[in-house]
Amino acid sequence: MRSVRSSLVLGAILAFAALAPGAAASSGSSFSLSKTCDGLGTCTVVASNAAALPAGTTETYLGPQFGDPVLSSRVVIASPYAGGGTATGVCTWPLRTATGICTFAQGTGSLAGFRAQVTVSANADFSLFFWNGTYRL
């Protein structure tokens, strides 16, 4: 059962990545951000070097969709950048590793055309999370 679930998760990740060719590192700007999370599915950016995702940007997680060994969730970013906009994507976090990935392939408002591929990590006590990756807007 676990290998079937793992195969489904891997297939979903690969299918989603195929829909987001603009998220490749070679076509985007590098960025990093730090965020805190409330434990109820909402995170708030506290520091960022990406203009489109300034401090105060929120992320709402609409999952998890899968359990052990991989958590997966749809996520919606709401940014105040240039009048406001949203972006949607999916994040996965293998429970046996200290890092996950998020991929975004669409946006609205000021985030229309938003594409991103990020690695997610956390500090030792999971009080602060980090995104490092590339984005295109």
What distinguishing features does this structure have?
disordered N terminus, 8 strands, mainly beta, 1 helix, 137 residues, eight-stranded antiparallel β-barrel, 48% strand
Kindly describe this structure.
Helices cover about 15% and strands about 50% of the residues. Strand 7 and strand 8 form a beta hairpin. The protein has one domain (about 1-135). It has one helix and eight strands. It is globular. It has an eight-stranded antiparallel beta barrel. The chain has one helix spanning about 1-20; strands spanning about 30-35, 40-50, 60, 70-80, 85-95, 100-110, 115-120, 130-135. It has about 140 residues and is mainly β. The longest helix has 18 residues, at about 1-20.
Summarize this entry quickly.
This protein has 137 residues and is mainly β.
The dominant shape is globular
Write down the domain tally. 1
Count of helical stretches: 1
Q: Describe the sheet with the most strands.
A: 8 strands, antiparallel, barrel
Cα distance, first to last residue? 39 Å
Task: Spell out the helices and strands N to C.
Answer: HEEEEEEEE
Give the uncertain stretches in residue-range form.
1-26
Share in helix: 10-25%
Rg: 14 Å
Number of strands: 8
Average pLDDT reading: 82
Sequence of strands across the biggest β-sheet = 1-2-3-4-5-6-7-8
As a percent range, the share of strand residues is: over 45%
**What structural category do the secondary elements indicate?**
mainly beta
